[in-house]
Design goal:
alpha+beta, single chain, 5 strands
Length: 236
């Protein structure tokens, strides 16, 4: 969802603050304001042991309750399956502020990833397939705690019922709150202002905020594989 008028200005301001010279009188505030994660942000697709940044690296910024993020996932997944070992993917949560339940669903992903990383992408897919349950209108008449209960139940269903208590307590754990905030700040620092946004080998793809179809991914990735001397396999 492309929302320049909502988020572009804050993103630009954050970028300006990050790039202040160290001698600038406001620089001390930048040091205090920026939270640097102990590890690179995002959820690695597939086995972490097979993640290799020397491959073609795709970074995606998704909101779990954004329809455009939902529509962008199937063609991206199809492309990943096609290119297999040639490509690595990391997905970052970017909860848009006008989606009431974007932050809580994003937070659930961080909680589940810490408990059972093999359930992270199945939970992404559950949210995408059942987005309407978490749209603003559908949860307008229930409390925030009821929303958290619903999300925790869903997350436990996907990750395993034995994780329910840990998932529920995760919503009161400051660490999961900070991880979700850091993901959002990281996106802002990269110039993200909507979802989905895609970077390939560190470069922003055009038309941010709109899904990219399978043929679009082929047009992006095929020349890169060819440039690396790899063989391009045609889809069956």
């Amino acid at each position: 969802m492309n929302v320049i008028h909502h988020l572009l200005v804050p993103s630009l301001l954050l970028s300006l603050l990050i790039n202040l010279p160290t001698h600038h009188p406001s620089a001390k505030w930048v040091v205090r304001a920026q939270s640097i994660s102990a590890q690179f942000d995002g959820f690695v697709y597939g086995k972490k042991s097979e993640f290799n940044p020397s491959k073609i690296l795709i970074e995606a910024f998704f909101d779990p309750v954004c329809p455009d993020s939902r529509d962008a996932w199937p063609p991206l997944k199809q492309a990943l399956n096609h290119y297999n070992s040639h490509v690595s993917l990391t997905v970052h949560t970017f909860p848009l502020p006008y989606h009431d339940n974007a932050f809580v669903t994003s937070r659930a992903l961080h909680i589940v990833n810490d408990l059972n990383s093999s359930a992270t992408y199945p939970l992404w897919e559950y949210f995408f397939k059942n987005q309407e349950k978490f749209y603003n209108a559908q949860t307008a008449n229930i409390s925030k705690s009821e929303v958290v209960d619903r999300v925790a139940n869903v997350a436990a269903k996907v990750a395993g019922s034995t994780h329910y208590s840990a998932i529920k307590s995760g919503f009161t754990d400051r660490k999961s709150d900070l991880k979700t905030r850091i993901s959002f700040k990281y996106g802002c620092s990269r110039g993200v202002f909507g979802t989905p946004f895609f970077y390939v080998n560190g470069f922003l793809l055009p038309d941010g905020g709109s899904p990219l179809d399978y043929n679009g991914w082929r047009k992006v990735i095929d020349p890169l594989i060819k440039a690396k001397g790899g063989k391009i396999y045609r889809a069956m």
